[in-house]
Amino acid sequence: MPGRIRGQLLKGTTTLLVLTVLRDGELYGYEIAQRIRERSGGAFFPSEGALYPALHALEADGALEASWQESDRGPRRRYYKITKSGLGMLAEHAQEWAAFSLGMGQAVGEPNR
Amino acid sequence: MTIDWLFAFVWIGGWGAFLIAAIWLVRRSERRLSVGPGDPYAPIAPGLDGSEPMAAYLDRMTGALALPAGDVAEVRAELIDHLQDSTATLEAEGFEREAAIREALGRLGPPAELGRQLRAAHQSNRRLLAGAGGGVFAAGGGFVLGYLGGAALALLLALVLAAVAAVLTLVGVRLPDIINSSSGGYAGNSLMLSVMLAVAAAFATRYAVRTSAGLSRRAPRTVAVFWAAAAVLGFGWYALFGLRGQQSWLCVAGEACIPLAAVAGAFVRIERPMPHVGRWAIVCSAISVVFLVLGLAAVSGSSVIGTGQVHEYQPADLHLDTVAPAAPAAWLPADDYVVTGQDGGQASATHIDAQVISPSSGASASLAFATVLINWRDLRFEAWHGQPTWQDSGAIGIDTHYTSAFAVQPAFLQGKSLQADFHFERMRDARSWWVVLTGVGPDGSRYRLGDGSGNWTDFYGSAWDWLTAPQ
SS3 of B328, please? Predict the structure, then answer.
């Protein structure tokens, strides 16, 4: 069981981060990358090459909705918004992450905070 | 005649709803396939500010995408936007312009790998299934719509050809008649059906490809390969084995066009949107057809309420001596006798019957024919090619271009008559035929017993039957 959770978490880290930052509102691609960096205090810097495939896969799965909107800079930008299905997916991933974090903490002997 | 209005309403309404749903599905899914000024999905791509490395990167990434044009445009626009933001941030952090671009591109990773990952993200199994199912549905709608359009096109072509033929006939040019059943068979009908099915097949594959490509997020030409293969198998099988009717080389050629049209529908200009047929195009077409019909009626001398020209039946020289000399009257029974041919229909044998007719009543004599001809032997029916005719009813006598019968059957006694069955509907070259009863007389020579009978029998079957039939 722990092995299965660990595999899914490793694969879904970007998904969890993207869904988390989008829970607060609509963002476009570069903004999502920046927001992840800010929220992690610069400790977590997602691969930009993996960000867009993850965004498009989440959109294909129905977790996100994308729309082209006017931007203050001129050309339209592609904004992403989390859907109801995406919120459910976020809850599942967060739960898995909590279980993984707890398990890892116990395994390496550090106190769980 | 009573009309079941409820059934008619449900039938027409059902097909209408199916067509509307199929067209809606195609229109909706094909929005992904192109980027046009009126396309709501079309992004307004920002410029690259003359950045060669960015353009080269995006081109390499696009090469690995293999997505519909709408998706490609969106991905490119989104990445350009990202690269410009990223470059600006890096420049603000102290990078030189060129170094900032290199760094921004490096953070996105290898372009081909990014393209492959984006393609995998778009082309999920769920979308593939949706594309396959939607393609089948759209193909059904396209087939029905194409069949209706093909019927209109075939009718228009028939009217144009009839008008041309009428004009040429007026000036004395004789043309082969492919419409009149008595002289040319129903090849015209088979050809019209082929045109209708070819248009329907082309519409079906085109609808299927564009819908599948849009829903499954694949490039239309990638999807077209699969649909073309399926169409060749499906429509090819149907054209070769399933489509049964009057056949000729012209009909077989028309039927061969059905799978070819399906393949053409899958590939030709498949990236372009389907042409929009406007209101005025439909109105103008309808007016053209009306004028064409009126013009044809005027040229051919008939009116919409008249009966048109009447072709008088003119008996011609039967050329029966080509078969064999007539038997001496002294060797024949006193009663008259006839050879009659009964066409068994499109898919069964033509039945030939020779029987003695009583001159007084015209009814069949009680004496068996073979008993009357006791001194004759080797009685047989010989089928000869009939003379080509032009809009006359029935074949007239023997075509002297031939020196032998194309089919011979021994006569067998059935009841009071001599009979034989010929499968003219399975012989490519039969069509116009004339059957004569012959036998070897007391002097050992073969003679012709009576004048015989003739008719037209069209080849009936599939294209495969035609191709493998004996001459």
Answer: coil
